[in-house]
């Protein structure tokens, strides 16, 4: 039903989905036919003698395709045949017969609704009047006989079908009432909107008095109603989802599920449609709504006096519990709440009750997935109708609109829902309509390589430097005297060039492909080269394989292909194949240094890891009860609690990162490798530093002494000079400068200055000369540069150095110049000379982090330094910059930085590898467990099973060493148990829960029901089970003679459930020499061929 107030035009499409529609308004109703093959509209017939038309409805009766119900302002309803005027009978052309449905009291007819399931039912909504109901249900089947003569020929017998059930019950409407009237309702209310539910004959929705949304059940004479307080001026039912209903009132649209009417599924206004670019209109009123009959969840909405129609995409969604996914996130640090795919609610072990996915998820929940609008038609629209599409998978939606002047226009909207699926192997599939494209992330060249096939670079020919370096620096011997390579400096030259997150194919809708031409070539020296993989040929459509440009129409596909290849998942896959792993720290640093897709900082953190572990863990990281392994600058400066005395007493070694990797030659470290060819954590001698720490250490808890001992390990000639300012933590400052890889000794600084000048970094050399108050040398360094801009900077610098002629004008000019300069080192030294405040210099974020930290430890006072470290950690953590680990180390605070790093980049690989060194060996963190499991699943998804196993082996060796050193309990389970023996009587595990049993106390009875365990089917002796705790303790005890032998093993057939001692079962089937003696089970009358499964 469509209301038609006064002369305002209204449009209604054929309910039988034919290419016909009707336009009505005022006193005229016209029938049109749309010819899609000719893109034309043809007029069929009209009725212009209809006075005072208020509303009309089109009957869905299959026997009459031109039957209309017209509501008048007097309340009278007329049933007419609109095409009767096209045919002449007995030389007379008339408007045809009319069947009238009278009303007792005159009042306006507001709305009409035919029942789709049974077109003989007609609901009429009227204004209220005293003593007369406003809702009337009619049965118009008897009117058919009065309407047939106006049409040539009678409807065939096939059109006469049995009426569907259940029928609407006839109520007592009074003795004088029309026999066609079935029921009457709402005696004191105004009916503003009506609609029968699809596929239902007795459920009627109504908007009452603009205050109530009411559901009538018409199966009984006294109708049962359900009331919901809601303003309703229009109702739209969904043919695809019959239980879903939309209603509008004022400027609000509400989505309901009739099975749960008290609570709406969704409520929205035009303010929720800012994505389509249209600004909300103040005081807007929704005029008409309609569900698409071909698009699931597509709702068209038109506002009064609007020049466009808006489409809302309403999709089903399950309610997810966000408490777990967000509990490690600070919403104040981000404008939009984003959730990492590795930080979703999992049902992993260790999560308590209340953690994970909600037990109840409402399947009928809906969300607004998208919104789009038609073009602006220039003139205000009066009405619209969605055109049914004969093709079930069309890529467009068609809409017929009519403006207030009666002009018709058919508009085509390209709104095909785009479905995207990303396989675990990196292939992106995008489908729209009947077309589908597959964008492979990589070319499948057969079986993937194995970990031992990767070329692991563990040599020092091309080392990874860290710090400023110097001739006598601990890291400079056979290393780059510059410390940081030019690549590192270039990466930090301007952080504004960095992207906050590697883009993902999940955002392809918002990716302007035309503006992003694909790269035609890659550097041949990079190990991350991708080749154009062959597209998978589909029957409908496939992505092109050749390189192309937007000019020939193929650039869009190529650009999207580039997005898939450059996604972080593909980067992680390539890294894994190239040997990125736990045991290859040097290789990791070199590999990520040439990674063209990663953001700056990954290579630097691996380089710092090598550098710091050489200072902290050789020969031992545990001094005076403090474990310095994996600590950062924050722990060195503020201190941290010592280990418990009990732990110190029983610990003889500790977990640390590979220390021998710091040596200039790795031949000794890699000489004894495992069978895979890749050095494992325990194969490298420096991984586990031997300690002579004992409980009787008289210096237990002396942190200053421990830091002093760390300094004493270094060559005195290589120690950085003591800062000139007064401090209470001189040792901490000196060692922190060592960890920063920075030395301002004359020899080291002179060597670094020469290196920088040779590399064209004259401003960097001049900056540090200014910091050390060597102004003359700074001016000379700038004047030796070939860049004339540096000569101009030298002139400005000469006017600012102490002793020069300075004026307020010169100072003001320098401050304005600092804002305009691009070189961070020039800005830093001019800032220091003008403000004399090191805090202003540290605000220069374009300087590399380790240089800013070196400035802080060299020049800031104690209190200012502590405050700066705290602010820097918070800043780096909120932005997900992994270099923050230099300050926090691999500590619980470092896990917060890794979490935000994963959220910003999606690089769960690096987070999993770094966290494996300390979790759970040093502390437990649920996030680290998730990263590791997510990375394992990613490798399995790429079918890199050997690489996943290699990752598990590295983690297992670290955990095994932690158990041996006492950092983890002996009963610690590295992986969940896959095999469990249960009692046949009580179904409880036969392994005792207590860990006090010894190998001599073997279990022969069930600890749950105390019944004897089964007997060996060969020797008939009761089976004995060695408790796992006892077995593990004996195997870890080097003095124990216990060994894992086949005598203790048990074999049980999974078919017949018979078994026994492994040695006896093997001898039964194979004999002593391996010759088959028996083929069937040793149990009498059992014909199971157990030996075939061995």
TrEMBL record:
Belongs to the WD repeat mio family. GO terms for biological process: positive regulation of TORC1 signaling. InterPro entries: MIOS/Sea4, MIOS_a-sol, WD40/YVTN_repeat-like_dom_sf, WD40_repeat_dom_sf, Zn_ribbon_mio. The keyword Lyase does not apply. It comes from Pisolithus microcarpus 441. Keywords: Repeat, WD repeat. GO terms for cellular component: cytoplasm. Residues 727-859 form the MIOS-like alpha-solenoid domain. It holds the Pfam family MIOS_a-sol. The keyword Repeat applies. Residues 1000-1091 form the GATOR2 complex protein MIO zinc-ribbon like domain. This is Uncharacterized protein.
């Amino acid at each position: 039903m469509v209301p038609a107030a006064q002369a305002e035009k209204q449009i209604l499409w054929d309910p039988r989905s034919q290419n016909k529609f009707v336009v009505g308004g005022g006193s005229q109703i016209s029938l049109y036919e749309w010819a899609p093959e000719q893109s034309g509209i043809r007029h069929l017939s009209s009725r212009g003698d209809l006075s005072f038309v208020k509303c009309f409805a089109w009957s869905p009766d299959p026997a009459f395709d031109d039957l209309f119900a017209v509501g008048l302002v007097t309340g009278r309803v007329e049933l007419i045949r609109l095409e009767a005027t096209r045919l002449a009978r007995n030389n007379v052309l008339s408007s045809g017969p009319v069947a009238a449905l009278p009303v007792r009291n005159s009042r306006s007819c507001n709305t009409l609704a035919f029942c789709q399931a049974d077109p003989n039912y007609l609901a009429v909504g009227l204004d209220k009047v005293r003593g007369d109901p406003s809702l009337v249900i009619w049965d118009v089947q008897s009117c058919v006989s009065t309407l047939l003569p106006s049409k040539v020929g009678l409807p065939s017998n096939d059109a006469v079908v049995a009426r569907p059930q259940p029928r609407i019950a006839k109520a007592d409407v009074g003795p004088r009432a029309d026999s066609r009237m079935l029921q009457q309702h709402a005696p004191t209310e105004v009916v503003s909107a009506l609609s029968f539910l699809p596929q239902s004959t007795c459920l009627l929705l109504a908007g009452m008095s603009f205050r109530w949304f009411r559901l009538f059940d018409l199966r009984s004479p006294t109708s049962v109603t359900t009331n919901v307080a809601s303003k309703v001026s229009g109702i739209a039912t969904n043919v695809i989802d019959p239980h879903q209903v939309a209603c509008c009132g004022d400027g609000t649209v509400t989505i309901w599920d009739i099975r749960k009417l008290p609570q709406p599924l969704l409520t929205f206004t035009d303010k929720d449609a800012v994505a389509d670019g249209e600004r909300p209109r103040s005081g807007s009123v929704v005029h008409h709504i309609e569900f698409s009959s071909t698009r699931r969840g597509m709702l068209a909405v038109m506002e009064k006096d609007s020049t466009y129609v808006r489409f809302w995409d309403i999709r089903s969604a399950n309610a997810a519990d966000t408490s777990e996914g967000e509990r490690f996130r600070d919403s104040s640090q981000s404008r939009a709440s984003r959730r990492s795919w590795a930080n979703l609610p999992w049902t992993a072990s260790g999560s308590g009750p209340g953690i994970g996915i909600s037990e109840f998820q409402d399947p009928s929940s809906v969300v607004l997935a998208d919104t789009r609008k038609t073009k602006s038609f220039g003139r205000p629209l009066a009405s619209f109708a969605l055109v049914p599409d004969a093709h079930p998978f069309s890529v467009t939606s068609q809409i017929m609109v009519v403006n207030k002047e009666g002009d018709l226009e058919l508009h085509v909207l390209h709104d095909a829902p785009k479905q995207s699926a990303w396989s675990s192997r990196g292939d992106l599939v995008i489908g729209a309509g009947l077309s589908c494209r597959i964008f492979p992330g990589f070319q499948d060249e057969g079986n993937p390589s194995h970990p031992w096939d990767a070329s692991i670079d563990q040599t020092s020919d091309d080392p990874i430097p860290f710090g400023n370096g110097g001739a006598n620096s601990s890291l400079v011997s056979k290393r780059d005297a510059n410390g940081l390579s030019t690549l590192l400096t270039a990466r930090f030259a301007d952080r504004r060039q960095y992207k906050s997150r590697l883009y993902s194919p999940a955002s392809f809708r918002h990716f302007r492909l035309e503006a992003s031409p694909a790269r035609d070539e890659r550097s041949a020296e990079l190990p991350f080269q991708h080749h154009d993989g062959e597209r998978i040929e589909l029957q409908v459509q496939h992505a092109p394989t050749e390189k192309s440009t937007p000019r020939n129409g193929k650039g869009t596909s190529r650009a999207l292909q580039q997005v898939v290849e450059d996604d972080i998942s593909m980067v992680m896959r390539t890294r894994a194949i190239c040997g990125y792993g736990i045991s290859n720290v040097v290789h990791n640093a070199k590999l990520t240094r040439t990674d063209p897709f990663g953001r700056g900082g990954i290579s630097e953190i691996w380089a710092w890891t090598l550098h710091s572990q050489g200072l902290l863990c050789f020969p031992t990281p545990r001094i005076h009860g403090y474990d310095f392994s994996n600590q950062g600058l924050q722990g060195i400066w503020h201190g941290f609690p010592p280990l418990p005395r009990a732990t110190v007493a029983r610990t003889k070694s500790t977990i640390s990162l590979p220390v021998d990797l710091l040596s200039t030659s790795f031949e000794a470290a890699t000489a004894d490798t495992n069978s895979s060819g890749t050095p494992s954590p325990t194969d490298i001698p420096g991984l586990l530093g031997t300690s002579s720490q004992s409980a009787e250490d008289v210096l237990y808890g002396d942190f200053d002494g421990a830091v002093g001992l760390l300094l004493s390990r270094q060559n005195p000639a290589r120690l950085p000079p003591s800062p000139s300012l007064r401090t209470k933590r001189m040792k901490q400052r000196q060692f922190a400068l060592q960890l920063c890889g920075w030395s301002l000794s004359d020899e080291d600084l002179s060597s670094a200055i020469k290196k920088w000048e040779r590399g064209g970094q004259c401003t960097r050399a001049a900056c540090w000369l200014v910091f050390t108050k060597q102004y003359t040398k700074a001016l000379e360094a700038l004047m030796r540069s070939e860049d004339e801009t540096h000569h101009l900077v030298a002139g400005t610098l000469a006017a600012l150095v102490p002793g020069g002629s300075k004026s307020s004008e010169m100072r003001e000019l320098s401050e304005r110049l600092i804002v305009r300069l691009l070189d961070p080192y020039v800005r830093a030294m001019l800032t220091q000379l003008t403000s004399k405040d090191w805090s202003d210099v540290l605000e220069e974020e374009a300087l590399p982090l380790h240089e800013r930290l070196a400035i802080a430890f060299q020049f800031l006072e104690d209190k200012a330094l502590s405050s700066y470290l705290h602010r820097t950690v918070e800043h780096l953590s909120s932005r997900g910059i992994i270099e923050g680990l230099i300050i926090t180390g691999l500590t619980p605070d470092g896990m917060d930085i890794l979490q935000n790093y994963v959220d910003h980049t999606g690089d769960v690989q690096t987070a999993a590898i770094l966290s494996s060194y300390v979790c759970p060996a040093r502390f437990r963190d649920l996030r680290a467990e998730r990263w590791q499991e997510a990375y394992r699943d990613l490798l399995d998804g790429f079918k890199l099973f050997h690489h996943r196993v290699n990752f598990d082996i590295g983690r297992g060796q670290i955990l095994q060493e932690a158990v041996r050193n006492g950092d983890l309990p002996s009963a610690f389970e590295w992986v969940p148990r896959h095999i469990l023996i249960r009692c046949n009587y009580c179904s409880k595990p036969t392994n005792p829960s207590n860990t006090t049993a010894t190998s001599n106390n073997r279990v022969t009875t069930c600890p749950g029901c105390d019944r004897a365990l089964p007997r060996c089917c060969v020797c008939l002796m009761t089976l004995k089970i060695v408790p796992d705790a006892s077995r593990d303790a004996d195997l870890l005890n080097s003095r124990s003679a216990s060994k894992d032998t086949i005598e203790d093993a048990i074999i049980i057939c999974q078919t017949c459930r018979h078994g026994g001692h492994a040695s006896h079962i093997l001898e039964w089937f194979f004999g002593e020499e391996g010759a088959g003696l028996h083929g069937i089970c040793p149990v009498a009358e059992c014909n199971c061929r157990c030996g075939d499964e061995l």
